[in-house]
Amino acid sequence: MGMEDSQYFEKPIIDVIKSRHSVRTYKYEKLSEEIKRKLINYSKKIESPFDAKVRLELIDELKIAEKGNVKIGTYGIIKGTSSYITGALEKGDNSLEMLGYCLEKLVLYGTSLGLGTCWLGGTFKRSQFSKMIDLKENELLPIVIPIGYEADKKSLVEAIMRRGAGSDNRKTWNELFYNGNFETSLDEKSAGSYSLALEMVRLAPSASNKQPWRILKQDNYYHFYMEATKGYGKALGFNIQKIDMGIAMCHFEMTLVEAGIEGHWEYEYYRQFSVSDENIEYIASWLEGASHMRL
User: What is the per-residue DSSP string for 103-167?
Assistant: First the structure.
């Protein structure tokens, strides 16, 4: 975590990542004013490493009341909470990735405060949430995240959805991480001080648990690629797997920074790193070193 993160997080980021899980059934308990203030204050400190504009908003019962006749819905998927985090973004290069990056930072902070969350990409009434945050013409609202206190007992819908998503299964290292080329798997020993950060990427949440991230180590560079699932999420109107890539980038960076390993993200120069597989797309590169380049 960066200096600004360490001022807020009271738990090691590894513990926070490991404890985070999707929560769809919440206690009927409102967030305290102190908790809301902490979430809002931290959200204002979050910056994306690329020049993408992301607007984070906290919706609660007061904001819902202010809007009068606007009712927000999640098609029965979420029960018990009236608080949500939304992320609106301006269209542009890396915007979806940076939405995932910024939202996951806030999700992890909420987790460190004992709150449950769940990423929603399609199972919410988009027009109603758009009215709640006064969505601008040049903005998209791909994701909303319910936030609150996890109920002691899961609903039947939640139990079915969790089994269907395969949320408890993760791909192995040799399916996700590569050394020098995409024919050679990267093992933990070769990853050295980066092994923990890569493991935190492996544990990251993703839509339908598709885990699209593929990371190629070349010397001190870690190049992030997305292996797209053909046709997946097409009906949403945006590429939800790019949001997954931002989540992976967030886990990777926060783990490294907390361990004292300096580095920075780059994009422009390395985006020529294409591969023969049309389903694999270059996303960004992490370069070890103290300098930071904002693109």
Answer: HHHHHHHHHHTT-EE--BSSSS-HHHHHHHTT--TTEEEEEEEEEEPBPSS--HHHHHHHHHHTT
